[in-house]
Design brief:
Strand order of the largest sheet: 2-3-1-4-5-6
Shape: elongated
Number of strands: 33
Mean pLDDT: 87
Structural class: alpha+beta
Radius of gyration: 38 Å
Length: about 650
């Protein structure tokens, strides 16, 4: 299987980057008429070639200082760099700036080409090479192959190809192959007969014909009609390939550089990014907290502010000094389709200057307020994020999520990984005892289980201390206090888990302490409830008043009212009318007598004789039976149904 490698050019304007790509591939990457007329690269150019089972995709970037933003867009995601320095010009300002940007973007492999070697003698060439080595000392290009070449004569071109193939062999692409499917758009245009087309570098995963993708940050769903790689139609494109997609469901006017295509629900764009930011040593002045910046990420360029975070033990951070690094949050004017591990570049809006860049640690954390500065919890969280251990970060996010937990899909969105990878992280946490899965599907941290059990016990204790007759609590009330805002499925999972762990018991819509009677009453309350029920049963149709019964039982009237309410809910007592409550056995006896005259039509006096009740009790009972359709009123008479 052929390896695929994305190569980006870098170097000062007019140092021969485009000519070198043309000499290597036979394709002129300058595609705009203005570029050909002026002899400089203005926008990104593209070419490809295959040597020794390696398919190279070249992204040619502009070298002029006015187009650094375009250079950054082209350099994002490259596997290796073809770093160009002209023999007749040596190291220039954009040579240095491009090298700094590549380092900030974490490019780790490259080949250096000393172009235009035909224009200088051997001594001058040797001097330029010495200057190049001084420049790259201490960077990822230290020790990289440095070859003299001439795009005009062809000198050194075969050796440069061999050096690129050798460099490709040193690449480790395993991380890219496991990344989330994401395509940053760098061009959008319309092809007659096909409709809108976009191009970009596939950062991870695969995209196939017929796939339904989401355009971020807009959130629109589109369909892939056709896939092309290097001008050839393919069934699918894979990670690292320069890809062209013909899209359906959108117009060209809605497409622009800086957008990204991802699978549906795979990633959420973020307007607050927690980052590790570094300032270049050559920056003229420190960057103060809250400074306005331009943030370059993927192919996007958005405005925002940088808010510095204090180091451990600090309570504030006032500025970021040249050559220093610090954790920070970028608050953006437009959200970005970012994921942890992504690289970014910071530039000053005015006067325009490349300030530095860094690594995104979290793309889902809200703005950290100053009241949290200096706390142990914040310091520990930031340290875990900076360390970059994905499993430990998953544990941190799970712990912070509390009772809500995460589904594998939601955790994948936060980590910026496919759902399957998020499931692997959750399984590893479960194996270590740090996480478990609720019966309803969400995953929670083990600390959340302990916290929910503690809060449930506290609720029952509060209930008991209040003097309530029943320790049972309505499910809705219990959930409101235990975990407000939980989705129904997650709430059901918690009730099932806590009941299994004998933290609580659920009966219908009531929640009780573990080991409590089925009624939800304490043992003492059960005894009093039985005595209340018996008092109502023996009283018949003349039920006792709470002010009379409470002293006889030795309990407070409000406790008696609570017990009566519990007995009503349990069906032991029955409310005939607002002022009449009787024991169910009393009502059952009356209903049995009613059965003896079924089908008959009686006046009120007939019912009085049947039951021996006074009118004060009789009329409410008849109205109760009317409501239950046991009797049917016919004027002054009632028929027994």
């Amino acid at each position: 299987m052929q390896r695929r490698v994305l190569v980006g050019t870098a170097g000062h304007i007019d140092h021969g980057k485009s000519a070198l790509v043309r000499a290597l591939t036979g394709t002129d990457p300058d595609r705009l008429p203005e570029e050909k007329a002026r002899g400089i690269t203005i926008d990104l150019g593209f070419a490809h070639a295959a040597w020794d089972d390696v398919v190279f995709s070249f992204v040619d970037v502009p070298g002029h200082e006015k187009f650094v933003r375009t250079m950054v867009a082209g350099a994002q995601g490259i596997d290796l760099v073809l770093f160009v320095v002209a023999s007749d010009d040596s190291v220039m300002p954009q040579t240095r700036e491009h090298l700094a940007i590549l380092s900030l973007l974490d490019v780790r492999t490259g080949v250096v080409a000393r172009t235009k070697s035909d224009l200088v003698d051997a001594a001058t060439g040797a001097l330029v090479e010495e200057e190049i080595r001084d420049l790259v000392a201490g960077t990822f290009l230290e020790g990289a192959p440095l070859l003299p070449v001439s795009a005009l004569t062809g000198f050194g071109i075969p050796e440069l190809r061999e050096a690129l193939v050798a460099a490709a062999g040193r690449l480790d692409r395993s991380a890219r192959d496991r990344r989330l499917t994401r395509l940053f758009l760098d061009r959008a245009f319309t092809m007659k007969g096909f409709g809108p087309v976009v191009t970009g570098t596939l950062d991870g995963g695969r995209i196939a014909e017929g796939d339904r993708l989401t355009l971020l940050p807009d959130g629109r769903e589109i369909r892939v009609r056709r896939v092309e790689v290097h001008g050839e139609e393919r069934r699918e494109a894979v990670a690292g390939e320069r890809t062209s997609l013909n899209l359906a469901g959108i117009e060209k006017g809605d497409l622009r550089r800086g957008q990204a295509l991802v699978p549906k629900d795979a990633l959420r764009p973020a307007a607050v990014l927690t980052v590790e930011a570094a300032l270049l040593a050559g920056v003229a002045a420190p960057v103060p907290d809250g400074a306005r910046v331009r943030v370059h990420h993927g192919t996007a360029d958005v405005a925002g502010r940088i808010h510095l975070l204090p180091d451990a033990g600090e309570t504030e951070a006032r500025e970021l000094s040249p050559g220093a690094s610090r954790l920070a949050q970028l608050v953006l004017e437009s959200p970005l389709p970012a994921r942890p591990g992504d690289r970014f570049i910071l530039r000053r809006p005015s006067p325009v200057e490349t300030l530095g860049g860094g690594r995104i640690l979290d793309a889902g954390r809200p703005r950290i307020r100053k009241k949290a500065f200096g706390t142990k919890e914040l310091a520990e969280a930031l340290a875990l994020l900076a360390a970059g251990d994905e499993e430990k970060i998953a544990g941190l996010l799970l712990r912070e999520a509390g009772a809500a937990g995460f589904s594998p899909l939601a955790l994948g969105q936060r980590l910026g990984v496919p759902e399957g990878v998020a499931s692997e992280r959750l399984a590893a946490l479960a194996a270590s005892g740090a996480a478990l899965k609720l019966p309803a599907g969400a995953w929670v941290h083990s600390r959340a289980v302990d916290e929910m059990a503690r809060r449930a016990a506290a609720l029952f204790s509060e209930r008991k201390a209040s003097g309530a007759a029943s320790l049972s609590i309505a499910r809705s009330e219990f959930l409101e206090k235990l975990g407000r805002g939980l989705p129904r499925e997650t709430a059901d999972g918690w009730f099932a888990l806590l009941e299994k762990g004998r933290v609580l018991a659920v009966a219908g819509d009531r929640v009780s302490p573990p080991g409590a009677a089925a009624s939800g009453l304490s043992a003492d309350a059960e005894g009093f409830a039985a005595r209340v029920a018996e008092a109502f049963r023996t009283a018949g149709w003349e039920p006792p008043r709470s002010t009379d019964l409470a002293p006889k039982l030795g309990i407070k009237p409000q406790v008696l009212d609570g017990l009566a309410a519990h007995l009503l809910k349990a069906g032991v007592l029955v409310r005939i009318s607002p002022d009449l409550v009787v024991h169910r056995d009393v009502l059952s006896a009356a209903e049995r007598k009613l059965e003896t005259v079924r089908g008959q039509t009686l006046a009120v006096a007939g019912f009085r004789d049947l039951w021996g009740l006074t009118r004060k009790t009789l009329i409410p009972l008849l109205e109760y039976l009317d409501g239950r359709k046991r009797t049917r009123r016919l004027g002054d008479l009632r028929k027994v149904e």
